[in-house]
Design brief:
CATH superfamily: Aldolase class I
CATH class: Alpha Beta
Structural class: alpha/beta
CATH topology: TIM Barrel
Number of strands: 10
CATH architecture: Alpha-Beta Barrel
Strand content: 5-15%
C-alpha cells in the first residue's frame, strides 16, 4: 500500500499564519521531483501547534493541490483516542489516501493500551493506517507483538513508519508481518540499512530540500542496486545528520528560508537556531550542493 518516498512536509508560516501561497509551491516542487506522497500535518508540519481549523485547512489544501498526482497521508495521531478518531474521520471525508498515527505521547500507555487505542481508531475509518513508532519522542515503543496484533486484527492497519533506530527491529517486523504490510524508515540516515533488511521506503525530512535525490536513493534500494544506493547515502549523510542538530523542523525550515522558498517561522516553544549551528548547517549544505 505505502512504498517509496514520502515527504513529511513542513508547514510554512508568515506573520504567525499559515503561508498557503508558499505551501502550494512546496507541494508542486515535491510532485515535480517525483515524490510518492506527502504527509500533511505530521510532526515535521508542527501539528502540535496548529489549531484544529488550521490542520483541517492544510489537509484539504494538500489534497486539492496534489489532485491525485501523489498520495496524501494526513497526520491524525494524538495522545487522545477520541481526538484521533475525529481527526481520521475528517481526513477520510476530505479525501486523503491514508492517515499517520503516532504513538500516544506523555500518557505512557501499556502495550494493551496502545493496541486498544490504535484499534479503536482503525475501526472508525476505512482509510489505510500508517502507524508511527518514535519512542525517542513519545517515550513509549510500539512493540513488535503489538504491531502483529494490530496487523491481524485491523485490515486497515497496513504500514508502520519505524523510527526506533533499530535495524534489528525492522528485520524482526519484516520476518513476522504479512508480505503486504509495509515498513517505512522514519529516519533519513537509516533508509539504506532499513531497506536492506526489508523496509519499502522512507518518510523523509531531507526530501523537503532534495526530493529528487532521495527518490533516487530509494529507487536504487528498490532495484537491489545497493552499491549505487551506498554512494548516494554517503553524499547525503552529513546533511541527514545536520538537519537534526536542533529540534526538527527548525533546521530544515532554516535551510528552506535560505533558498527563499519560505519565511523562517516556527511556533513557540520552538525557536530559531543558534548562530553556531546555522554556520555548521550552511557549511554542510554548501558542501552537499557542490558534490551533487
Amino acid at each position: 500500500m505505502f512504498r517509496g518516498t514520502f515527504t513529511a512536509l513542513v508547514t510554512p508560516f508568515r506573520n504567525g499564519d499559515v503561508d498557503f501561497a508558499a505551501f502550494e509551491k512546496l507541494i508542486e516542487a515535491q510532485i515535480t521531483a517525483g515524490i510518492t506522497g506527502i504527509v500533511a500535518v505530521g510532526t515535521t508540519g508542527e501539528s502540535s501547534t496548529l489549531t484544529h481549523d488550521e490542520k483541517h485547512e492544510v489537509i484539504e489544501r494538500t489534497i486539492k493541490i496534489a489532485h491525485g498526482r501523489c498520495k496524501v497521508i494526513a497526520g491524525a495521531g494524538t495522545n487522545s483516542t477520541r481526538d484521533s478518531i475525529e481527526a481520521i474521520k475528517f481526513a477520510e471525508k476530505a479525501g486523503a489516501d491514508g492517515a499517520l498515527l503516532v504513538a500516544p505521547y506523555y500518557n505512557k500507555p501499556s502495550q494493551e493500551g496502545l493496541f486498544r487505542h490504535f484499534k479503536a481508531i482503525a475501526d472508525a475509518t476505512k482509510l489505510p493506517v500508517m502507524l508511527y513508532n518514535i519512542p525517542g519522542r513519545c517515550v513509549v515503543d510500539i512493540a513488535a507483538d503489538t504491531v502483529m496484533r494490530l496487523a491481524e486484527s485491523c485490515h486497515s492497519v497496513v504500514c508502520i513508519k519505524e523510527a526506533s533506530g533499530s535495524v534489528e527491529r525492522v528485520g524482526e517486523l519484516r520476518r513476522r508481518l504479512p508480505k503486504e504490510f509495509t515498513i517505512l524508515s522514519g529516519d533519513d540516515g537509516l533508509t539504506l540499512p532499513f531497506m536492506s533488511v526489508g523496509a519499502a521506503g522512507v518518510v523523509s525530512v531531507f526530501s523537503n530540500l532534495f526530493p529528487a535525490e532521495l527518490c533516487a536513493l530509494v529507487r536504487a534500494c528498490e532495484s537491489g542496486d545497493f552499491k549505487s544506493a551506498e554512494a548516494l547515502h554517503r553524499k547525503m549523510f552529513p546533511l541527514f545528520k545536520d538537519l537534526f542538530i536542533e529540534p526538527n523542523p527548525v533546521p530544515v525550515k532554516t535551510a528552506l528560508s535560505w533558498r527563499g522558498a519560505i519565511s523562517f517561522e516556527v511556533r513557540l516553544p520552538l525557536c530559531e537556531m543558534s548562530e553556531a549551528n546555522q554556520a555548521r548547517l550552511r557549511k554542510t549544505l554548501e558542501a552537499f550542493e557542490k558534490a551533487k
